[in-house]
Amino acid sequence: MRGITTDCSSCINSNCFIKKHLHLEKMQDFVLEKTNYTCKKGQQFMIEGAPIQGLYFIYKGKVKVLKTGIYGKEQIVRLTTDGDTLGFRGFGTSNRYLIAASAIEDTVLCNFSNDIMHAILKSIPEFTYDMMLFYAEELNKSENRVKKIAQMNVRERVIDILLYLLKKFGHTNNLLNINLSRKEIADFAGTTDEQVTRILSSLKKENAIKIVNKKIGILQADKLKSEIIEHK
Q1: Distance (Å, rounded) from C-alpha 14 to C-alpha 172?
Q2: Chain centroid to CA 101
Q3: Calpha distance 63→44 (Å, rounded)
Q4: How remote is the C-alpha of 232 from its chain's centroid?
């Protein structure tokens, strides 16, 4: 990873956990100690089982969070973008990352080391309290996702992911602002590349989506939502 410099005070990511607490007096000193990195597309910067190197916050870019399943198959558990937090699942409870992460596109990261994070948590009660609420919310999201996926068939899981991508990343000219391969969609849906290709082809014939140079566009979001409404 290549080192660069970013300024938290000029950051436009209002959802960033650090940015939200920048108004706290003591935070001004801590943000000066962070480290920034640029990751190229496809570069892995967190390795499952490797020693924890603090928390990462995405300044700009897109990242997929991975976990190894049975037979060594990768499972995408989360997709993240500007302002999102990475590495928090193992922080404070384990000395090693419980997941891996790699850049989907060129990405700029802010890293707060273990020592810095521990110092912040011990000295800024408001930050610590909000971090506790953040963990509770993330746990609730994970539990709801596991329950939902267990009740969905493969077509419903693929549709759910398409709607998630639309909500998370938005679209331009009716094309999603993120370009995932069929394998990546399959790794997220817990299925195979072949099944994803067949389902996308079927949805295209139904005029629910369009595909332009392998990029996906949602044409009938309401139609797709109606298929999975019972799982929401």
Answers
A1: 22
A2: 9
A3: 9
A4: 20
- Take residue 50 and report the two structure tokens written for it: 């490797």
Cα separation, 147 vs 145, in Å, equals 5
Q: What is the DSSP string of 108-176?
A: EEEEE-HHHHHHHHHH-HHHHHHHHHHHHHHHHHHHHHHHHHHH--HHHHHHHHHHHHHHHH-EETTEE
Contact 50, 58 (CB under 8 A): no
Cβ atoms of 17 and 81 closer than 8 Å:
no
Amino acid letter for position 86: L
Residue 49 DSSP SS3: coil
Chain centroid offset of residue 151 CA: 23
d(CA 215, CA 227): 22
Tens digits of residue pLDDT in 52-107: 999 999 999 999 999 987 777 889 999 999 999 998 877 766 688 889 999 999 99
In this prediction, residue 143 carries a pLDDT of 86
Whether the Cβ atoms of residue 97 and residue 33 lie closer than 8 Å to each other: no
What does each of the 232 residues of the chain score in pLDDT, given as a tens digit? 665 677 888 899 999 999 999 999 899 899 999 999 999 999 999 999 899 999 999 999 999 999 987 777 889 999 999 999 998 877 766 688 889 999 999 999 999 999 999 999 999 999 999 999 999 998 898 888 888 888 899 999 999 999 999 999 999 988 999 999 999 999 999 899 999 999 999 999 999 999 999 899 999 999 999 998 876 6
